[in-house]
Design a protein that fits this description.
Layout (H helix, E strand, L loop, with lengths): L1 H14 L20 E5 L2 E4 L4 E6 L2 E6 L20 E5 L1 H4 L9 H9 L3 E5 L6 H10 L8 E6 L10 H4 L11 E6 L2 E5 L8 H21 L2 H20 L16 H17 L5 E6 L4 E3 L2 E3 L1 H7 L8 H12 L3 E4 L6 H4 L12 H16 L1
């Protein structure tokens, strides 16, 4: 009776948009989670040679992976052109919410006539994971350039165990950074060593499968996700998981420990690719969509006169770009706040096909012409 009552109340709250999450169950709107896996050393990735469907109110797309689990319909092997370009990043690079032909990798590939390898992954993917993915897999493939997507809104926090080391996230197989010296960080796996495949499988089976089941078949998932989000906000403030109360957010984030840890692995990644002809880092402002109204708080604050270029993260990123001889491309310098709202999926906030083509054209104009 209790379960049925909670499900009915969750159904009503979802239909009235009363919760922080008001999504339909996956059997009505396939969630695109079946192709995802967390058994690799870098955590979030895709099952090889797999296809999946993801549908929300503003898109209906098919995801497919190749022989290595990358989002592509062509194999990645030693026969790739030597002038291939590696694209690495999170869900923006992966292309969440768009068809394969509309992803950054495919649009850029057609635009410049060179193979672009898509090493993007959604499901909380940050600099530590990107460095491991490049070092252990992507670096082995023929390529001579790299494009690295960086999102200040989440890349400083994705691998900070102060932020993510909750009871739930301990049961996810993903790496975090931990400080071992004044200027050195190491990789930390909660719950045991990365090679313990049986433990990894058990954790994934019990907790990830339960989560997928709830999202797939119930409205109660919306209630639980809302409670989890509210609890996270409360505990973050109460326990000061991120130490300082006024650290800002996204472009105006200023927690030094999180910045140092994230950029340590960003620099490590770029240093491992030091032999390449060119390395480009693209910085993305954040866009938040609520009830199909999308806003970029980053660009709004910038337009109101707030300056982020004197903050630690930006100064450190500029210094790292100089030390590693890479190109820094900040989209906030090239996009207006009213432009951004047209460039994203209204129910999701990820770049839409139009937005992806606008950004690709900016990158081509700046670096490939």
């Amino acid at each position: 009776i209790l379960i049925i009552t909670i499900e009915m109340l969750s159904f009503i709250a979802t239909k009235l948009n009363l919760l922080m999450y008001n999504e339909e169950p996956g059997y009505l709107y396939p969630s695109g989670d079946k192709w995802r896996t967390e058994t690799m050393p870098w955590g979030s990735w895709h099952k090889p040679n797999f296809s999946d469907r993801h549908r929300k109110t503003c898109f209906d797309v098919e995801y497919e992976s190749n022989n290595l689990g990358a989002r592509d319909n062509e194999p990645y092997d030693e026969n790739l052109p030597k002038n291939s370009i590696i694209l690495i990043g999170d869900s923006f690079a992966e292309g969440m919410g768009v068809q394969l032909e509309d992803t950054f990798a495919e649009v850029l590939e057609k635009r410049i006539g060179r193979k672009v390898l898509n090493f993007g992954s959604a499901a909380h993917f940050g600099p530590v994971q990107e460095e491991i993915l490049y070092r252990t897999l992507a670096s082995k493939l023929p390529h001579n350039e790299m494009i690295y997507f960086f999102l200040p809104a989440n890349d400083f926090l994705e691998n900070d165990r102060r932020r993510w080391l909750s009871k739930f996230n301990q049961f996810r197989h993903r790496p975090y950074f931990k400080k071992v010296d004044n200027d050195k960080y190491d990789i930390f796996y909660p719950g045991g060593k990365t090679e313990n495949k049986i433990l990894i499988y058990f954790k994934n089976f019990i907790f990830h499968r339960l989560q997928v089941f709830l999202i797939q078949y119930t409205y109660t998932a919306n209630t639980l996700r809302t409670i989890n989000a509210l609890y996270s906000r409360y505990t973050n403030k109460k326990n000061m998981v991120i130490r300082e109360p006024n650290i800002g957010y996204s472009y105006f984030f200023d927690d030094h420990e999180a910045i140092n840890g994230a950029l340590y692995f960003s620099k490590k990644l770029l240093s491992e690719a030091s032999g390449l002809k060119r390395r480009i880092i693209v910085i993305f402002p954040e866009v938040v969509c609520v009830n199909s109204i999308c806003r970029s708080k980053d660009l709004e604050m910038i337009y109101s006169g707030k300056d982020y270029k004197n903050l630690k993260w930006y100064l450190d990123l500029k210094r790292i770009s100089s030390e590693t001889n890479r190109k820094l491309f900040d989209l906030a310098d090239h996009l207006k706040k009213e432009d951004w709202s047209k460039m994203v999926l209204k129910c999701d906030g990820h770049p839409n096909p139009y937005g992806i083509r606008v950004i690709v054209e900016l990158i081509v104009e700046k670096f490939f012409k």
